[in-house]
Amino acid sequence: MRYKRRSDSMVSSRGGGGSSWLCKPSFSTILRFFIVLILFIFIFNFYSRGILEDEQNLNVSQQLPQPHDKLWEAPFSDGLHSCLNPTSKYQVLQGGDHYITVRSNGGLNQMRTGIADMVAVSRMMNATLVIPELDKRSFWQDKSIYSDIFDEDHFINSLKSDVRIIKKLPQELDSIPRARKHFTSWGGLGYYEEMTKLWADYQVIHVPKSDSRLANNDLPLDIQRLRCRALYHALRFSPSIETLGQKLVERLRSRGGRYISLHLRYEKDMLAFSGCTYGLSDSESEELRLLRENTNHWKVKKINSTEQRIAGLCPLTPKEVGIFLQALGYPPSTIVYVAAGEIYAHLSDLTSRFPNVLFKEMIATEEELKVYSNHASQTAALDYIISLESNVFIPTHSGNMARAVEGHRRLLGHRKTITPDRKGLVEIFDKLESGQLNEGASLQHLVKHLHQKRQGAPRKRDGAPDGIKGRARYKAEESFYQNPFPECICRSKQRS
Predict the structure, then answer these.
(1) For 11-25, b where at least 16 C-beta lie within 10 A, e where not — what string?
(2) CA distances to 208, 407, 450 from 377, in Å
(3) Is the dihedral of CA 402, 403, 405, 410 positive or negative?
(4) Which helix (H) or strand (E) holds 227?
(5) I want to staple 109 with a disulfide (CB 3.0 to 4.6 A). Which of 199, 203, 318, 400 is the partner?
(6) Residue 337 backbone dihedrals phi, psi, to 5 degrees
(7) Which residues face 337 on adjacent strands?
(8) Does residue 59 carry a pLDDT above 50?
(9) 152/238 Cα distance (integer angstroms)
(10) 336's torsion region: left (phi>0), alpha (psi -120 to 50) or beta?
(11) Handedness of CA 92, 94, 97, 101 (dihedral sign)
């Protein structure tokens, strides 16, 4: 009974309005509850806002260019585009019974620009142009004929409204006397009008050297645009070269999407010709000296290497290129395609900084390259295509290929082309060598500042520096084919 009464008491106690567990909570309990609730709301809002900001920042970062992307961006083209069509005054010419035969000289791009000049000369002299003979006696000893490198039919047909072009001189003219004429370098319209007097005595003029036969400036607009049509449109590479070149471009892009084409002119012939031996051993320097001495058509034999380098006339070394690319901000993972032949020495100084350095032999099969063996001009054509299509083109020396690719990239919308200021860089590299400067932020600032205006942005072609007079100024001018603005690049409403 005592247990029962206790239970009843407990029941009675729980049912009573004055029981302790059903009593109103105290003020301190309520206060604690509200504090916990406020803390919960604050924490929830804090993390929600962080998530929202992260999403917003992600959206913005996807829309706005990041610092890394700016390394690859083409310069602002300011609405400029190619304009190659002739003016309304231009007349269609078919050529008469006068003929010009040509032997092109030099490497691939020296021949290309020379052929474009000869197209314009044939127009000015109202002559029929015979498909040029290519150089087989230069340093490279390439035995290629015209159709091995260029699309011959395309060349003839695309210029049929400008100049009559034929594959061979008519057989009946093979045995007649012809004028052998070394046209002057950087000739103008007046000079070639004077040369038409040769037609009074000759039906055929043979031109044994084609490079730099036309002035860079002060030629009629239609002649300048004809030069552009000839070089950039008519001189298309052969179908086999074009096909393989585009395949190699796609293979490079498949490795990382973007790539630099580096025209690393640290090849044996360039170093011997320029007399640049900085960073080389005594035996390497001597080997280059002997090559220069024994190459008959290289006129200058004694060259001071130090003076050449200080003047900015030497190609950058592989080590200097590696420092330069890093200072510009390119990461070590960057794909760097070397558009050049065999590098003479010290390539490891570049690959130690940029391990993804590639050559055509690394992206093409042995079978694909077999047909191009011992044909330097044909392999140079592959390098040209890969360089033209690259995200960034960087030449380490201002040779014929560097100028031709830069001009073509300007015509195609001012694609990014970084031209190293070699003279300015020598001063910086020497400070690094002597310990006056260390790699890092200071070096990056100097290099980037030095190259702010050397990335392929639109600008008019440079004339000769002040103080240069006479015919020397023609050679000192910027090449027409390096920068065909303003004649072939304009803001007109109609593209061409």
Answers:
(1) eeeeeeeeeeeeeee
(2) 19, 19, 34
(3) positive
(4) helix 221-228
(5) 400
(6) -90, 130
(7) 261, 358
(8) no
(9) 8
(10) beta
(11) positive
**What would the pLDDT profile of 342-389 be if each residue is shown by its tens digit?**
999 999 999 999 999 999 999 999 999 999 999 999 999 999 999 999
Centre a 10 Å sphere on the Cβ of residue 126 and count the other Cβ atoms it contains: 15
Output the pTM of the full model: 0.85
Residues 6+ apart with CB under 8 A from 294: none
Q: What tokens does 28 get?
A: 């301190």
Q: pLDDT tens-digit profile of 285-324?
A: 999 999 999 988 888 999 999 999 999 999 999 999 999 9
Distance CA 379, CA 193 (A): 38
Residues found in the chain: 496
Strand order in the sheet with 336-338: 357-358, 336-338, 260-263, 392-395
First to last CA, the chain: 114
Q: Which helix (H) or strand (E) holds 338?
A: strand 336-338
Alpha helices in 82-141 (DSSP H): 108-124
Please check whether residue 63 is in contact with residue 441, taking contact to mean a CB–CB distance below 8 angstroms.
Answer: no
Q: Are 168 and 131 in contact (CB under 8 A)?
A: yes
* Contact in structure between 132 and 234 (CB atoms under 8 Å): no
Residue type, 120: A
Token code pair at residue 123: 């127009």
Q: Please say whether the beta carbons of 210 and 111 come within 8 A.
A: yes
The encoded tokens of residue 381 equal: 């054509």
Strands (E), 194-243: 204-207
Cα(94)–Cα(141) distance, rounded to whole angstroms? 35
Tell me whether the omega of the peptide bond preceding residue 486 falls within 30 degrees of 0, making it cis.
yes
CA–CA separation, 218 and 189 (whole Å):
9
* Distance separating alpha carbons of residues 157 and 155, to the nearest angstrom: 6
Q: Residue 204 in 3-state DSSP? A: strand
Query: Beta partners for 358?
Result: 337
Distance CA 261, CA 231 (A): 21
In the sheet with 99-102, reading across from the earlier edge strand, the strands are 165-166, 128-130, 99-102, 204-207, 179-180
Query: How far, in Å, CA of 31 to CA of 319, rounded?
Result: 71
Nearest of 97, 198, 134, 85 to residue 380 by alpha carbon: 134
Q: Which residue type, as a one-letter code, is found at position 294?
A: N
Instruction: Name the residue among 180, 286, 161, 307 with its Cα closest to residue 234.
Output: 161
